[in-house]
Structures are given as C-alpha cells and as structure tokens.
Amino acid sequence: MGAKHFGARITRLEDPALLTGRGQFVDDISLPRALHAAFVRSPHAHARFRKIDSAAARAMPGIHAVLTADDMPPRIATGQIPMLVPNPAIRTPRTQIALARDEVCYVGQTVAVVVADSRHLAEDAAAAVEIDCPRRGESRRGPRARRSGLQHRGPGADELRRRRCRVQECAACV
Question: Is the CB of residue 115 less than 8 Å from the CB of residue 63?
Fold first, then answer.
C-alpha cells in the first residue's frame, strides 16, 4: 500500500462472502487421506529436558508419528529455520530451530510434533506426550544472567552482546 493510498478506502472483494458467512478458509478444505499435525510446546521460559516420553501418544489409535528433535535428520534437528525473506540490514539473521533439543528457551517453543488422522486425535496425543523438564533460572540481563550462563551463543553472539540485545526470549538465549 503506497503513501497516496494511506487512509483511502479500498474495495475488498472478499468482504461480501465473509460478512454473509460464506467465506472459505484453509481449515474448511478436506482432502482425502490428509494427515493433521499438532505441536507439543514448552510451558516454561527456560528448562532442560530430562526425558520426553511419547509412548502413550504413539500407542493411541490413528497416530502415525510422534517426532522429537532426535527423530529428525541432523541438519533439521540442529540448524535454524532459514529466513524466508533475507534482509541485507539484518547482519546476524536468527530464527528458531524446528524442534527444541535438550532445552527450551521460551514459553511455547516446539518440543515435538504429532501426526494423526484428524486434528482432534493429534491434539489428544500431543496432550499425552510427557516432558520431564525442570525449570531453570530465567534472568536475561546483568550479573545474574552472566553467572547462570544465560547468554546468547552461536554465530553473531558477540555482536548481539555488543549491541546489548534486549530480546527477552529468543532461540539463542541459553
């Protein structure tokens, strides 16, 4: 949207269908033999895994797979997701990893994915995955963070420290 269009009315073609309840969304499309995924997410801002027990979820009917970082190919398990639209202004592009390995660094970080016949089965199985992960300290700045080892690591970490990164919860925080 250009500057000359800022604040101007725009005719939207989808409005009549949405306003009358005839809109169609991706969730409305049903394909034969399509599988559904649900993600298991961390409830903690910072925790180290002791164990991920997916046996109960795997045993449920209609479940095709329960995947953790250990089940992924090495490049996907340890590498960060590439940026879709690289920007030359971002000198140290940082994204999250696909599934957390050994520890989580923010609330909601993905730990496992469940693939099933239906969304409901996938969500039920995701709830059955048990993660033994005691919380760790969550200080992000200052001497307490340095003592506890909660610092940025990886490529570009020195630049992040130099710029006094204020990102509270990122995949690079440890």
Answer: yes
CA distance 94 to 80: 8
Q: Smallest Cα–Cα separation from 115: which of 51, 79, 71, 49?
A: 71
Separation between Cα atoms, residue 77 and residue 118, nearest integer Å: 26
Q: Is 170 a residue whose pLDDT tops 80? A: no
- The C-alpha R_g of the chain, in whole angstroms, comes to 21
Tell me the two tokens of residue 169. 């919860």
Residues 44-59: pLDDT tens digits? Answer: 888 888 889 999 999 9
Find, among 59, 68, 65, 56, the residue nearest to 116 by Cα: 65
Q: Beta strands of the chain (E only): which ranges?
A: 36-41, 47-48, 51-53, 63-68, 103-104, 110-116, 130-132
How many CB atoms sit inside 10 A of residue 111's CB?
23
Domains in the chain (CATH in brackets) are: 31-137 (3.90.1170.50)
| pLDDT tens, position by position, 100-134 | 888 888 889 999 999 999 999 999 999 999 988 77
Q: What is the pTM of this model?
A: 0.66
CA 46 to CA 29: how far, in whole Å? 37
